[in-house]
């Protein structure tokens, strides 16, 4: 990794450790069991640059993940997140709250989905969200199953925890078993949803019961270690964003690189927790590897809301401001930054820096990170920002080509 600026440390002015190399996963090399479409992964969507392609026969592993699978064809399709589950389980509500900022209470007025609703999301990576009607039997011969599941990123199965869930589990298992031969690598993400209405004890019992039933039934059919993950979610708190963050993170091949960069930044600047947020959806696409607690995510997520609200009032059209100044057009915009104090078990600091058009870095700092270190933190975050440009070149290119209106 080439960096024009040597980084500084908050305590001693020593360089930040060099960016780690991330090698291609050899287990991904053999996909002969899969249908051609299933061989594609999200990587190729992420950085659709000609120079990001890695020839299959290249004996030298790339130093950084390139955003493309060696055997993938160049295409302009987008990875899909499929939202499936029983009627009224909350699929449309989830999509509306996370991606359209619909206030949760207004989901009461959402109409039943009668046909597959396909939406494209444009952010640091482009993807599609397909919202399925609850009653649909997609394994009916009338449906082109390959067309639905071919370029899928994740299958999100929503189960209403406040309702009778046995049939939902049965349909989920049927779907997993049907898919396992052709698409064994699909991530199945089960959202045990609407947990807001349940008592703590009942919530835990229901969650465990659902996991047990799904796993038992799958192993009865000889399918051990199915790639299924479970989350407790509700649109009335941050849990749905947290769950979506984890789903999306699995689709980002550069995640280990991002985590290593954030770890490095945290240790150099004495930051307790750092999140890289997708501003539009408030999904965090990476965080450092120190333990995450929902509380720190909530603080950061609320802070993004404040910053967005303020910038909507006082913001300016950045495209016009950039002019020809190369240092500005490189990142697509001026850096927006702020440092505020918060009363939360002492003097904690929140530091936000807009990284590019799509991403913002938010850091949570404890007592030992007072404002006087801000210059050093600024500098190191600048180094982090420069490194990120190499990890997500496409986001930068978009920011230059299509400045925000
Ligand atoms: N308590 C609670 N209610 C929720 C939650 N999410 C959704 N709901 C409610 O569940 C009801 C059904 O939500 P929808 O999003 O329409 O469900 P759907 O799965 O899209 O339904 P179909 O379109 O019929 O397949 C609505 O009244 C929502 O307000 C949640 O997290 N908690």
TrEMBL record:
Catalysed reactions, as listed in the record: GTP + H2O = GDP + phosphate + H(+)
Biological process according to GO: cellular response to starvation; negative regulation of autophagy; positive regulation of TORC1 signaling
Residue ranges, annotated region (Disordered): 1-35, 52-79
Matches recorded under Pfam families: Gtr1_RagA
Keyword set, alphabetical order: GTP-binding, Hydrolase, Membrane, Nucleotide-binding
Subcellular location(s) of the protein: Endomembrane system
GO cellular component: endomembrane system; fungal-type vacuole membrane; Gtr1-Gtr2 GTPase complex; nucleus
Name of the featured protein: GTP-binding protein
InterPro entries xref list: Gtr1_RagA (IPR006762), P-loop_NTPase (IPR027417), RagC/D (IPR039400)
Gene3D superfamilies per UniProt: 3.30.450.190, P-loop containing nucleotide triphosphate hydrolases
Taxonomic superkingdom: Eukaryota
Comp. bias regions, Basic and acidic residues: 21-33
Gene Ontology terms, MF aspect: GTP binding; GTPase activity
Biased composition (Polar residues): 1-15
SUPFAM superfamilies: P-loop containing nucleoside triphosphate hydrolases (SSF52540)
Task of the protein: GTPase involved in activation of the TORC1 signaling pathway, which promotes growth and represses autophagy in nutrient-rich conditions.
Family statement: Belongs to the GTR/RAG GTP-binding protein family.
Species assigned in the record: Didymosphaeria variabile
Entry keyword annotation includes Membrane: yes
Assembly information from the UniProt record: Component of the GSE complex.
């Amino acid at each position: 990794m080439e960096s024009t600026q040597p980084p500084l440390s908050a305590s001693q002015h020593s360089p930040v450790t060099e960016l780690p190399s991330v090698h291609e996963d050899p287990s991904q090399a053999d996909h002969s069991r899969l249908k051609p479409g299933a061989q594609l992964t999200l990587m190729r969507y992420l950085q659709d640059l000609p120079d990001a392609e890695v020839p299959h026969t290249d004996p030298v592993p790339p130093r950084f993940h390139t955003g493309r699978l060696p055997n993938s064809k160049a295409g302009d399709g987008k990875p899909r997140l499929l939202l499936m589950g029983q009627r009224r389980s909350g699929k449309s509500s989830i999509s509306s709250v996370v991606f359209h900022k619909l206030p949760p209470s207004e989901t009461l007025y959402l109409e039943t989905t009668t046909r597959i609703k396909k939406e494209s999301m444009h952010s640091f990576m482009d993807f599609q969200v397909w919202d399925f009607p609850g009653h649909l039997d997609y394994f009916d011969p009338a449906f082109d199953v390959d067309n639905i599941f071919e370029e899928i990123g994740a299958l999100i199965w929503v189960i209403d925890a406040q309702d009778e869930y046995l049939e939902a589990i049965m349909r989920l298992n049927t779907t997993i078993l049907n898919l396992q031969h052709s698409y064994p690598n699909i991530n199945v993400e089960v959202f045990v949803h609407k947990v807001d209405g349940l008592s703590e004890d009942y919530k835990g019992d229901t969650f465990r019961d659902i996991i047990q039933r799904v796993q038992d039934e799958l192993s009865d059919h000889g399918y051990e270690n199915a790639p299924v993950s479970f989350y407790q979610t509700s649109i009335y708190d941050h849990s749905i964003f947290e769950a979506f963050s984890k789903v999306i993170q699995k689709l980002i091949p550069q995640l280990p690189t991002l985590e290593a960069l954030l770890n490095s930044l945290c240790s150099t600047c004495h930051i307790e927790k750092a999140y890289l947020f997708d501003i539009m959806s408030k999904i965090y696409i990476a965080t450092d590897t120190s333990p995450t607690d929902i509380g720190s995510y909530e603080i950061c997520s609320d802070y993004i809301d404040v910053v967005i609200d303020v910038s909507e009032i006082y913001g300016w059209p950045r495209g016009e401001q950039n002019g020809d100044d190369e240092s500005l057009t490189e990142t697509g915009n001026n850096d927006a930054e702020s440092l505020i104090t918060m009363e939360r078990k002492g003097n904690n600091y929140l530091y936000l820096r807009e990284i590019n058009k799509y991403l913002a870095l938010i850091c949570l700092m404890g007592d030992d990170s007072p404002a006087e270190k801000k210059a050093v933190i600024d500098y190191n975050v600048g180094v982090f920002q420069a490194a990120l440009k190499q990890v997500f070149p496409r986001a930068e290119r978009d920011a230059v080509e299509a400045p925000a209106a």
